[in-house]
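cron nightly-structures :: item 1 of 1
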Amino acid sequence: MLQDIRENAQGTIAKIIIGLLIVSLSIWGMDAIIGGFSGEPEVATVNGEDITEREFLRLVQMESQRRLSRMETPDPSLLNEDQIRQDVLESLIQQEVLIQDADSQGLALTDADIDALITQMPQFQVEGQFNRDRFVSTVRNMGMGVAEFREAMRKQYVVNQIRAGIIQSGVAADEHVAQILRIQNQTRDFRIVTVPDSAVAGQVDITDDEVQAFYEENSSAFQEPDQVDAAYITLSLGSLAETIEISDEELQAYYEQRADDLAREERKASHILIEDGEGADATIETLQQRLAEGESFADLAREFSIDTVSAEEGGDLGYAGRGVYDEAFEEALFALNEGETSDAVETSFGVHLIKLEDVRRSEVPPLEEIAGQLRSELARDRAEDRFAEIRTQLADSAYAADDLAGPAEELGLEVREATGVTRNGGMAPFDHEGLLRQLFSADVLEEGYNTELIDVGDNVSVVARVREYREAQQLPLEQVADDIRARLQVRETREALRERAQEIIAGLEAGQSLEELGAGEWVSYEAQSRNSQEVGAGVMRTVFSLSRPADGEASYGQSVSADRASVVALDGVNEGAVEEDGADFEQLSQFLASLEGQREYSAYQQYLRNRAEVERP
């Protein structure tokens, strides 16, 4: 196995593993991998090996930050800290179990193995060669020593090799793949007759007694929720910036300072675009060789580029500034010097060679044209420091005050009011979950305190207090009767449609015709796939849920919505085509094999976890 590791140290899996290892270590440090130092408090012991409190707390902090980063508006008050601590501890236990398993199998890297991995990692190379200074400085920037980094690699690399080996060992039987594709590609022949809601309208009559009974049986659904009227102060960077006056002299100085930025740079590019595929690397090498031999970029663009429009012009794309091209294309273009040609650049369109033909800068716009924009920018820049200062003052003042009038007057802010705020929210800023949780907390609702200062958006903070609380109230029947009647109308219409559909199916199965049943006429559909758009999704689900019909007979089913019922007669099932040498077959086979490998690895992890002796203080 170790020989394989040496030979595959530059492979994709190795790069992913090492990349993840570097990121992890840069955040958690070495003790988050190998268990810290002896004598530290532990949060768990796995087969006699301690998981230290320090490593646990570091990972808890990291996981909290990760979950915050996934929120549209990060709010620490929304985190379930108990759940995070539980998840982190379990992940550390599982990690320790896997490391011990690797050790028990005698799977370890020698110093020579580690040296081979390190020297081939691109993070530690300069111009394609390992550079010890780069290695040492990178590791130290992670907050680690060289020995710690090497030991972490020794443990984690082998564990991840075991994982990759098990996952890649998954196998999917060809017949299993073919069976799924036959089902997936299956088409069906069927007929539909539709019963509109008007056909059963005379059967639906909602009485006052039914409305009364529904109201009493579902009284909890007809309550006005508890709500509060709130006072609040909003502090926003934008509003603060509007209060800052910028003199003409300050504006002129800022304009002169920004002159270089205001003169937009545009670059004239040419490119050769080829398809990204098996032959792409060879084609790029050919192009680069012919360019090196002195051939014209324009001539090669006309010969090779699949961008036919620009190819006719020798690959010329004209002038463009930033924000026009694909991100990777733009990054490569703006890194070139005039006359240079890039290496291969991959985008969603294919693989490019890019040549920078020319660079030009537009004139700085007159101050009169952009005065409003610059005045706003300068005011906002100046407001940022003031915003941070006032935010701190407001947080402290509101915490100590027994109302909002004092903090508002002290800081020159306005107290606003909101009425009818429920636990489900209200108009902004009371559409923010963290602010609502504070507003309906016991301290604020019952004890009369102000909320904490809550960040409800980018550079927007709010503090609030309850002015009046109203308990939940039962809505009178008169107020909700029309709504109840409408609900019952829909429910009973649907039930009447279902009964009519069942009646039609029973008649058809007994040998009657639609004419005899007074049910309209069939509409036929042939060879329809699962994703057919010719009929509704509900009807198609019914079509593909019916059993295969016997020869000369049909299978019947129904699909009922609020305004119609569809009776379906399934006449035939057409097996889907399967190309065992096709791309779909190969893709599904790989997916199922990977899925099986993941299941096997999960089972292996669980087996190790169940056998482990875990003690918690």
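cron nightly-structures :: done
The first strand starts at residue 42 and ends at 46.
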